[in-house]
Each structure stands twice: as structure tokens, then as C-alpha cells.
Design a protein that fits this description.
Blueprint lengths: L1 E6 L19 H9 L4 E7 L20 E4 L2 E4 L25 E5 L22 H7 L4 E7 L1 H14 L3 E10 L7 H12 L2 E2 L1
Parallel strand pairs: 1-2, 1-6, 2-5, 6-7, 7-8
Antiparallel strand pairs: 3-4
């Protein structure tokens, strides 16, 4: 069975949001259109405690975009975003919520970030997405959402590593681009790993 994975299509990643992705709202109509083609639709949702250690605000003297060591892992510091229960953490207006079968929340542990929809950044804990897809008999996944160079990239790489046939829809993703070329590099890395970029 095939599943559509909607990656972090949330208010804080849209233009005007706390961690805005340029043209991030452009992925919404693509996601809505694709939902009709899949028997299973799963949305991931960044869902951070308000004192999450990936937030620059939790590191006095540090700025957004700096990289720190967080429990042995390199961690980019972000603005406060997708705080549990906040307006910014809600799914984007216009996204067809009725078309979503399951929601997987990630980034819930204060001490470790979770770019991938499958695992935290240290692969220490699972989000439950792998088990859900196994239980549903899913062998193939297609991804759209935000952001190309972070959560889409790491979710796609984990999907391939788990043995799932994986594709990413180019018109349905947008990136952060902290550094120019980050998105192109992410797409190259996904392709090299066996992700079909369509």
C-alpha cells in the first residue's frame, strides 16, 4: 500500500510564521490535491515543549542559526516555533484536515530535536510512524511539505533506510535555505540515497 506523508505543514513554517519558509504556503494546494490519490494520509507535526533546547532563547548569548552541542549532537538553534498547543503549531489554514488519517507528533522531548518524522535526530527514540506504516501494510511513501532541507530531507532518508519505496514531489516542498544551496544539496543527497524526486 502507498501512503502520503505531509511533513510539518504548520502555521509557524508559513510566511509570517516564527520560522517562515519562503512560499511555504504553496505546498498546501499540492498536498490537498494529492490526498485523493492515496488510501492513507499521515501528517507529521512539530510539537515542541516551550523550553525546547533547540530554541536559541534557551541558550543565553547565542543566536538563531548558530550550531551548538546538544547532548552530543550538533544542533542548529531556531527561533521558538511550533510550541505545543500554540497557534503556530496548528496545521495551516486551507489544509484539508478531513483528508488526514493519522497525525504523528515529533520534537516532543525537550532535550533532542526531531527533524525526521520517524526518529529523533540521534535515532534514540521512534515517533511511532514506522510502526504505524508497518501495521497498515505500507511499502511505499510519497512526501510533500516543509522544509526541503530539514524535515522533508531527514524523513525521506529514514524512509529509504527503512526499506520503503520513497518519492518526494518537488512542487510540493519548500526549504529554509539557512545557507544558499542547502535545498539543492538536500535534493542531491535524497536522490543519491535512492529517493525518487518527481
Amino acid at each position: 500500500m502507498k501512503a502520503l506523508l505531509l511533513i510539518d505543514i504548520q502555521n509557524d513554517f508559513l510566511p509570517g510564521g516564527a520560522l517562515a519558509v519562503a512560499d511555504g504556503d504553496q505546498v498546501i494546494p499540492v498536498a490537498n490535491r494529492l490526498m485523493n490519490d492515496f488510501p492513507l494520509v499521515v501528517a507529521t507535526q512539530d510539537w515542541h515543549p516551550r523550553d525546547h533546547r533547540s530554541f536559541a532563547s534557551q541558550h543565553p548569548g547565542r543566536s538563531v542559526g548558530e550550531v551548538v552541542d546538544l547532548d552530543g549532537l550538533d544542533q542548529v538553534l531556531w527561533p521558538d516555533h511550533c510550541v505545543q498547543g500554540s497557534e503556530g503549531a496548528k496545521f495551516a489554514p486551507g489544509l484539508n484536515l478531513d483528508g488526514i488519517d493519522y497525525v504523528i507528533q515529533k520534537g516532543t522531548d525537550v532535550h533532542i530535536d526531531s527533524y525526521s518524522g520517524f526518529f529523533d535526530n540521534g535515532h534514540r527514540k521512534s515517533t511511532g510512524l514506522e510502526m504505524l506504516l508497518q501495521d497498515q501494510g505500507v511499502s511505499e511513501v510519497q512526501l510533500v511539505g516543509l522544509a526541503t532541507d530539514y524535515c522533508v530531507r531527514f524523513t525521506a532518508l529514514d524512509a529509504v533506510a527503512l526499506g520503503l519505496k520513497t518519492s518526494v514531489v518537488l512542487e510540493g516542498i519548500r526549504g529554509v535555505e539557512l545557507k544558499s544551496g542547502d535545498c539543492a544539496m538536500a535534493i542531491h543527497e535524497m536522490r543519491r540515497a535512492g529517493v525518487d524526486v518527481i
